[in-house]
Structures are given as structure tokens and as C-alpha cells.
Amino acid sequence: MSVTAIVPAAGSGERMRSRLKKPYISLLGQPILLHTLKILDTVSDISHIIVPVYPGEEDLCQQQVMSRLSLRADIDIIAGGETRQESVRNALSRVADSCELVLIHDGARPLVSRPLIEECTAAAQSKQAATAAVPAKDTITMVSSADQTITKSLLRDSLYIIQTPQVFKKELIVAAHQSALDDGYKGTDDASLVERLGIPVTVIMGSYTNIKITTREDLLFAETLLKNYFFET
Ligand code: CTP
Ligand code: MG
Predict the structure, then answer these.
(1) Residue 41 has what pLDDT?
(2) Per-residue exposure over 93-120, b if at least 16 CB sit within 10 Å of its own CB, e if not
(3) CA-CA 20 to 30 A from 66: which of 8, 23, 49, 117?
(4) From the centroid of its chain, how far is CA 22?
(5) How many Cβ atoms from other residues are within 10 Å of residue 136's Cβ?
(6) Can you give the pLDDT at residue 155?
(7) Cis before 31 (ω within 30)
């Protein structure tokens, strides 16, 4: 099976409020993005990894991350876009014809495990589209921005928090991104672009440790997890 991994890393990390952009922030002495790439590279089906980075910072990524890694897979660092969706779309245009599955995994999720990557990949191979997700632990509600009151409480039993990896048949994810572009649809992940085509996306049980590093306290949590848990590689 030929899998290309797209690792969006072109965000500016505003919620992190850090001088350094998020992919280069140190997690136990190594850039966040380096941890993420290392684990993806342990999956033997992944033969090509495309990393969209903040436009103009391709050399920085090369120096800060790639030069400290020796990867089995072929790597392409490319310019990302203004949104995550645009960054992924840029990367999709670089996927080889021979590729069967496209795996998309946030550069900011360095604690993903190899079994979860493999499970999502296997599910996409048989069912076209799969994403990792975990059941919501908290009650989730919609709040009106007009007067800051609750407009709708949602039933927790059917609510999941979407994670990555998300894996798709190549033709499907290319079509989903094209359709979103044509319709001006903006989503915050790739599974939602496939869902709007009416194609079911299989949900694989993710992990509460597969956090996305988004705000400063996430770094503390990630460091504690890395120090205290055994992550299978
Ligand atoms: N991302 C991207 N291109 C963008 C925006 C985001 O490739 N234009 C990537 C980020 O680098 C990150 C992943 O998408 O690895 C998830 O995005 P998020 O956690 O929101 O990161 P940022 O957009 O960098 O953070 P913020 O929203 O706080 O600015
Ligand atoms: Mg963002």
C-alpha cells in the first residue's frame, strides 16, 4: 500500500502566544514537528511526507527540523497557505499519481501513536475515509456571541472530538478539496470536506493523549505525557 502523509505545519500558532512558531517550539529539547515526523516515519507504508510550512520559512524548517532527522520516507517541504485547508490543498497538488491513500496529520500532534496511525490507515483502505476521534468528556453547548447565553446544549453521548490522523483514498480527498474550493466552503479539518460530499467517514477510537498543542498549558501536558508514558514506536 502506498501512503503519502501530509503534515500541515504552516500555522502561525497565535493561541500559543510564543515568539517561535509552533512547529519549532521545544518539547523535551526537540522541536514539536520533529517528534511528529519521527513517529510518522516509523509507519512502513508511508513512503512520502509532504510538510506545508509558513511561506518563506522552508529553509528554517530545513535547519531546525529536517537537518536533525534522518528519515526513511521522502520529504518535501512546501509553502503552506493562509488557512489549514489551503495548506493541505497545496500539499495535495504534490501527491504522486501512484499514491493510493493520503494520510493527514497535524504537525502540532506529536503524541500520536503508531498503532493509531496504522488503524486509521487500514480503515481507510477498506472504507475510503477514516478519522481518529475521542468521545467528548465534557458537556458541550452552543453559546450566542450576541449576549453570551446558552442557545443549545448538545447530547453528549453522540459527541466526539475530532483528531488526526485522517486518512482517505487519494481521489476522494482531492475531489473533496476541489468541491470545497468551488463552493467556498471552509472547514477546520479534512473529514468535514468528505462528509459534505455524502461519503461516510469511519471513526476510529483515538486517544486522550493524542493532544493538539494549541495553548501554552498543552506543552506542560505533552512534556509530562512524554516523560511518564510509554509511547509505542
Ligand atoms: N496549519 C497550517 N496552515 C495554516 C494554519 C494551520 O498548516 N494556515 C496547521 C498548523 O501548523 C497545525 C495544524 O494546522 O499543525 C492545526 O492548526 P492549529 O492547531 O490551529 O495551529 P495554528 O493555526 O498554528 O494555531 P492558531 O490557530 O492558534 O494560530
Ligand atoms: Mg489555527
Answers:
(1) 98
(2) eebeeeeebbbbbbbbbbbbbeebbebb
(3) 117
(4) 14
(5) 14
(6) 85
(7) no
Q: Determine whether the shortest distance from the Cβ of 107 to ligand 1 is under 6 A.
A: yes
Q: Tally Cβ neighbours within 10 Å of residue 146.
A: 7
* 72 Cα: distance to centroid of ligand 1 (angstroms): 26
C-alpha span between 178 and 196 (Å, rounded): 12
Q: How many CA atoms lie within 13 A of 232 on its CB side?
A: 8
pLDDT of amino acid 231:
56
Please give the pLDDT value at position 233.
45
Mean pLDDT by 10 residues, the chain (233 residues): 97 94 97 98 98 98 97 98 98 97 98 98 98 96 95 89 98 98 97 98 98 97 88 50
What are the distances in angstroms from CA 186 to CA 62, 166, 190? 30, 17, 10
Residue 28 CB neighbour total at 10 angstroms: 11
Q: Taken in order 81, 86, 91, 94, is the CA torsion positive or negative?
A: negative
Distances (CA, A) of 150 to 73, 138, 140, 160, 224: 48, 15, 10, 20, 35
Q: Quote the ligand 1 centre to 209 CA distance (angstroms).
A: 19
Helix H or strand E encompassing 222: helix 216-228
Instruction: Compute, in angstroms, the gap from residue 13 CA to the centroid of ligand 2.
Output: 7
